[in-house]
Amino acid sequence: MMTMNKRNLQKQRIMRFFIDAAKEIIKTEGIKNITARRVGETAGYSYATIYNYFKDMNTLLTYCAFDFLEDCYEHVITFKDDKWDCKEQLIIYNIEFFKYFAENPEIFKLVYLEDLGKIPEELSKRPSISRLILDNLNESSKKGYLQKNSIDLLLELMGASIHGKLLFYLNRPNENQDLDFVLQVIEKEIEFLLNNNEVKNYE
After folding, report:
1. What is the DSSP secondary-structure string of 120-147?
2. Which regions of the chain carry the CATH code 1.10.10.60?
3. Going by CATH, does the domain composed of 56-195 fall within 3.60.21.10?
4. Staple partner for 150: which of 36, 47, 72, 197, CB 3.0–4.6 Å?
5. CA–CA distance, 108 with 44 (Å, rounded to integer)
6. How close are the terminal C-alpha atoms of the chain, in Å?
7. What local confidence, expressed as pLDDT, does residue 177 receive?
């Protein structure tokens, strides 16, 4: 008889097959082409099997979205370097975050534009860019660089700026936008936000 632990491992393994299959379709064919039948074919299972592991396709897509967010986190965290000060590190994190989604527009559509419904509780505990940037802002405050009461607002403003620029950049592909120029604007905006929320005379 299969133990509870083995049964859970098997469940996680099959869920992973479906998640990876759905992610591959999203990346190569786009979110609009995702169907239960296509996911089942790609995963090597009957599409009906999906519903033994996910409540519906929206739930599967939610798992995919958080998986992509974790992929983005893993990409961005590779740029963590002790040689950067807090301000430089924040700029690098935001730039790499933008570049990840600029290069993966279908992932951006899934993560930020699709209505995925209720988020399963276990997914909210995964690593995220937002938490990474928040940790950096908190560290800046502890070191006396930033005003503590500005942290939540700074996080909100940075996120809104990046998301807005991504929407504009990805929805106007025929305007020959210069990615380097957009990244320079992001750098200047973050510098402006941080400089205007510094603790005066912290040096």
Report:
1. PGGGGGS--HHHHHHHHHHHHHHTTSB-
2. 1-54
3. no
4. 197
5. 27
6. 66
7. 72
User: CA torsion 39→40→43→49, rounded to 10°?
Assistant: 120
How is domain 1-54 classified at the architecture level of CATH?
Orthogonal Bundle (1.10)
* Rounded Cα–Cα distance for residues 176 and 127 (Å): 34
Instruction: List beta partners, residue 146.
Output: 198
- Give the pLDDT confidence score for residue 202 in this predicted structure: 44
Location of each CATH 1.10.357.10 domain in the chain = 56-195
Give the max Cα distance, the chain. 68
Q: CA 85, 87, 91, 94 torsion: positive or negative?
A: positive
Please, is 197 exposed, middle or buried when counting C-beta atoms within 10 Å of its C-beta (0-12, 13-18, 19+)? buried
Q: How far apart are CA 13 and CA 82, in angstroms?
A: 37
Question: How far apart (Å, rounded) are the C-alpha atoms in residues 185 and 65?
Answer: 27
Residues 6+ apart with CB under 8 A from 196: none
pLDDT in tens, 149-161: 999 999 999 999 9
Mean pLDDT by 10-residue block, N- to C-terminus, for the chain (203 residues)? 75 95 96 95 95 95 96 95 90 96 95 88 86 92 88 94 93 75 94 83 46
* Alpha carbon distance 18, 88 (integer Å): 39
Q: At what angle do helices 151-171 and 86-102 cross, to 10 degrees?
A: 30
